[in-house]
Amino acid sequence: MSGTYLGMPAFPKAAAVSTQNAQLRANLTHATHTIRDKRAKAVAELADWAELRQAGKEIKDRTLRRLDHYLLQAEAAVTAAGGTVHWAQAAAEANRIVADLVKAKGEREVVKVKSMATQEIGLNEALAAEGITAYETDLAELIVQLGDDLPSHILVPAIHRNRGEIRDIFREAMSRWGRPAPEGLTDSPAELAEAARLHLREKFLRAKVAVSGANFLVAETGSLVVVESEGNGRMCLTLPETLISVVGIEKVVPTWRDLEVFLQLLPRSSTAERMNPYTSIWTGTTRGDGPSDFHLVLLDNGRTDTLADEVGRQALRCIRCSACLNVCPVYERAGGHAYGSPYPGPIGAILTPQLRGLTSEVDASLPYASTLCGACYEVCPVAIDIPEVLVHLREQVAEHGTGHRAERAAIKAATWLLDHPAAYRTALRAAARTRRLQPRRLPLPGPAKAWSDTRDLPTMPEQSFRDWWKTRGQENTP
Q1: Which residue in 236, 212, 204 sits closest to 123, CA to CA?
Q2: Which of 360, 246, 359 is nearest to 300 (CA)?
Q3: Contacts for 309 with CB less than 8 Å, ≥ 6 apart
Q4: Backbone dihedral region of 357: left (phi > 0), alpha (psi from -120 to 50 degrees) or beta?
Q5: pLDDT tens per residue across span 458-473
Q6: 175-182: long-range contacts (C-beta < 8 A, 24 or more apart)?
Q7: Beta bridge partners of 282
Q8: 3-class DSSP assignment, residue 209
Q9: In this protein, which residues make up the domain named 4Fe-4S ferredoxin-type (predicted)?
Q10: Are 229 and 276 in contact (CB under 8 A)?
Q11: Would you state the pLDDT for residue 1?
């Protein structure tokens, strides 16, 4: 598999293939059920979870309403603390900024903290085109990179791989990227983790430039926050001389008091932990402590357009916990790659089409990659009503699509009929009088016959509601 989502088919075609992969489905079922069961127990520990969830929703909505204000406040704070702020309207601009910063340091390699924003813009591929190698240091991201694969989950990018597959990837690919896997490596989790640790250690100690994202950006002080479970992020954020952070503009929160709410919501919803083992917070630069050169790249890349949509903007509340993926029956069966985006699952089905636009076959198919069961909304820690946005986006797809000629003709006829009350009343009366002649099923030909054979047409009443109401009014007249 190539390292890019470009050229992937629409969701129905991709899912038709992935759902036939028994090993993939087994891996996903085991992993998602394990994660969501642990999450449910962690959330149940808090009696005020519902109140925390509502608080997170309200903080995000309040911030989005004044996003311009908080972004300028954050820029001023980061600059005052010794950092440099760059604004990137699109992916290409962000990639160019990062590549130029790395080359300005005379470097040809960077270490990376796991970052959805950099996956979104295809930073690794853009840097490679400039002769710069980006080394992923998150364990799951490392597995994906070594396997020339694509991430399939927000929290656990290699969730589609089992331990045996990971062992084989380490044995075959580690030597091409640096230190080879130990001899006799087994699929023991401890041995796999140790192999990754040894492989990455030399990169941590050698790298002069690191690239990260951020889970949150606190506007009042310009502080950035990265939460993680392995410690690789802490190594990237503290050891290199230069740190470049690519952060979506929606990641800003106004105050430290607001941050406290999300530091309770995020770990329980994502890793089912009471708090993340590593919570790294930095503000600009400090002499003798961490990187001496810090750059913040604020990324738009479709977020402003999303913000303008009163229904769709709630997707910008997302804190990338991935809880919605772990309860989604569609994701569990189809897998993350079928979504054709770094953002898979329910949140990807509403976020990707808004960030990229509904212009491609892939993006137009994503709002339909759901049963609308509502499980995603129930577990979302910031109460994003994903089913509502899915229906909203389906409406947009329908408005911009051409549709089948028979469908267009039917809609056109119905529109004319509903616009002419007299004709509508005549049609209702005619339908009532011919009710005994009407078929119980639609006489559809070909493949559509299977659909009609399992669905009865509704029984036509003897009289229309209008005629019934008119008669009732006469009967009740004194």
Answers
A1: 212
A2: 246
A3: 354, 392
A4: left
A5: 888 888 888 888 888 6
A6: 177/135, 177/145, 177/146, 178/135, 178/202, 178/203
A7: 224
A8: strand
A9: 315-384
A10: yes
A11: 39
Backbone angles phi, psi at 443, to 5 degrees: -80, 65
| % residues pLDDT > 70 (the chain) | 97
Helices 345-356 and 386-400: angle between axes, nearest 10 degrees = 40
Query: 25 is written with which tokens?
Result: 């489905």
- DSSP E strand stretches across 168-238: 209-212, 216-218, 223-228
> Which residues fall within 8 angstroms of residue 314, CB to CB, at 6 or more apart?
61, 384, 385, 389
Q: Looking at 230-292, list the stretches that DSSP marks H as alpha helix, in order from N- to C-terminal side.
A: 232-238, 256-270
111: tokens are 């270490």
Which DSSP state fits 305? H
**pLDDT band at 2; cut points 50, 70, 90:** very low
Average pLDDT over residues 440-462: 78
Backbone angles phi, psi at 3, to 5 degrees: -90, 25
Helical packing angle, 139-146 and 163-177, nearest 10°: 70
Q: Which amino acid is at 370?
A: S
Tokens coding 383? 């109460």
Q: Where are the domains of the chain?
A: 11-304, 409-475
Would you say residue 314 has pLDDT above 70?
A: yes
The whole-angstrom separation of Cα 36 and Cα 376 is 12
First to last CA, the chain: 80
Given a cut of 60, whether residue 478 has pLDDT beyond it is no
Counted residue by residue, the chain has a size of: 478
Smallest Cα–Cα separation from 85: which of 253, 236, 262, 219? Answer: 219
Q: How many CB atoms lie within 10 A of CB 21?
A: 14
Q: Are 306 and 354 in contact, with CB atoms under 8 Å apart?
A: yes
pLDDT tens digits for 213-240?
999 999 999 999 999 999 999 999 999 9
- Name the amino acid, one letter, at 399: E
